[in-house]
From TrEMBL, chain B:
Swiss-Prot/TrEMBL keywords: Membrane, Transmembrane, Transmembrane helix
Transmembrane segments: 39-64, 71-94, 136-157, 169-187, 199-221
Domain of life: Bacteria
UniProt key word Transmembrane helix: yes
Entry keyword Metal-binding: no
Classification lineage: Bacteria, Pseudomonadati, Pseudomonadota, Alphaproteobacteria, Hyphomicrobiales
A Pfam match: NrsF
Protein name: NrsF family protein
Length: 223, 228
């Protein structure tokens, strides 16, 4: 993360240049991009903070605004995401306000700010860790089998039963009796023979022909 | 995404209003003195207490005991432990200072404990030394606790002026400083050589003071994000 000074107007403001995932590693950034910018930034922030300790509200406002992107970047680098970043920023600003007397103007400002931000980030992450979280698993939800009947299942079953009844009714008497007694009512050959007065052999032939005819008629109907 | 954009602008508004609020309530503050100066201030208060006690108890016996090498070393260890622990506590109460300062009291602590332990060994080798009875032991214990209370209160007040980001560590260091200072202040009024019982009482009192500071002080020193 590279700190860039924007403009020469006072009060100055700083923005964080995008492109690096590591937040505010000013030491390394300074070494790569020339330590001058970092040194100037440190001096500016230290001067602003010293003025703020003396009660200069304008300097304090500029300082806090300059801190906003810095604090956000540190929080993100430590794994805070989304709205929690803004909460860390708020917590850090309030701690900076309360602890402003502990800043020594003869020392660099950014390590002081970084220490406060990291501690507030850890506090936030701990609080978030203790809170129960909703587990959202879209894949498992899609793969979930619904134990109840599908919509329209009853209508389909009724249509199939009506079609079968029509096909059976259209069969010749011998075949129809064989299907009704042997197939639908699940009677034995002996019982069916006694009921209908037909021989068992005739019943078998009728059942075979009936099933063949039904298969043909229902297949045709489907097509 | 439009949702992200509106969230970001909402957050910026929140931050800007907080910045305005904080800038509006800004009062001038005096930067805290360095940890060395603050530790010296606290030690000065402890020294005043010690001078008062010495005036009450007299220093004749104390000067005599200080001729015994291990007692003198134990006293030196206690004083050094108090000074270095106080400095470490004040250093760790400043944001951005290394937590490694917490290791600094270990050498004087070793000297203090080692020299006190040597007193036990001497008692074991040369029996017949005056061994304190139960009444004296209770007196020593009460003395340590009574001296510790005002010193603890003072160091907590002083530490709270900074911003201890590791409140438990800072409180434990403060507790060690208080315990060592109390043990050092006990020496002028302590009528006995060190013995095993004596060392045990010291250890229990020191552990109690550190634990009390660590537990209560951890809460006393922790600075949450609420505005006061």
């Amino acid at each position: 993360m590279i700190l860039v000074m924007a403009g020469d107007m006072a009060p100055r403001s700083w923005t964080l240049a995008p492109g690096s995932g590591r937040a505010l590693d000013t030491t390394r950034a300074g070494e790569r991009n020339g330590g001058g910018a970092r040194m100037v930034l440190e001096e500016e922030l230290a001067t602003l903070m010293a003025s703020a300790q003396g009660g200069d509200a304008v300097a304090y406002r500029s300082l806090l605004k300059a801190c906003l992107p810095v604090v956000s970047a540190i929080a993100r680098a430590q794994g805070v995401r989304g709205e929690a970043v803004d909460d860390v920023v708020q917590d850090t600003l309030m701690t900076v306000h309360r602890a402003r007397a502990s800043y020594d103007p003869s020392r660099p400002f950014l390590p002081w700010l970084r220490a406060i931000t990291q501690r507030r980030t850890i506090d936030r992450l701990r609080r978030a860790g203790r809170r129960p979280r909703e587990v959202n698993d879209p894949l498992a939800y899609e793969a979930e089998v619904d134990p109840g009947p599908a919509p329209g299942q009853g209508l389909e079953a009724r249509d199939r039963a009506a079609a079968l009844a029509r096909a059976v009714a259209a069969l010749p008497d011998g075949q129809r009796q064989a299907v009704e007694h042997l197939g639908m009512r699940e009677l034995s050959l002996d019982e069916t023979a006694a009921l209908t007065g037909r021989s068992k052999g005739a019943l078998k032939v009728n059942l075979h022909r009936a099933l063949k005819a039904l298969r043909a008629s229902l297949t045709q109907e489907k097509e | 995404m439009p949702g992200d954009g509106s969230r970001a602008s909402c957050a910026m508004t929140r931050h800007e209003s907080l910045v305005e609020e904080l800038a509006g309530r800004l009062d001038p503050v005096r930067p805290l003195p360095s940890p060395v100066a603050r530790a010296a201030l606290w030690l000065g208060a402890a020294l005043l207490l010690g001078l008062g006690l010495a005036a009450l108890a007299g220093t004749g016996g104390f000067m005599l005991r200080m001729r015994v090498p291990d007692l003198a070393l134990a006293a030196l260890g206690a004083v050094l432990t108090a000074a270095v622990s106080a400095f470490a506590a004040f250093a760790t109460s400043i944001p951005g200072r290394s937590a490694g300062w917490a290791l600094l009291p270990l050498p004087p602590l070793a000297l203090w404990i080692g020299a006190s332990g040597f007193g036990c060994l001497r008692e074991w080798i040369a029996p017949g030394t005056d061994i304190p009875g139960g009444h004296t032991v209770t007196g020593c214990f009460s003395f340590l606790v009574c001296v510790s209370v005002p010193l603890s209160a003072l160091i907590v007040v002083m530490l709270r002026r900074a911003c201890p980001l590791r409140p438990n560590l800072t409180a434990a260091l403060g507790g060690l400083a208080v315990a060592a200072a109390a043990a050092a202040l006990l020496m002028p009024v302590h009528p006995h050589d060190a013995t095993a019982t004596d060392l045990l009482i010291h250890a229990v009192a020191v552990a109690l003071i550190i634990a009390a500071n660590g537990l209560a002080g951890g809460r006393l020193l922790s600075r949450d994000a609420r505005l006061s």
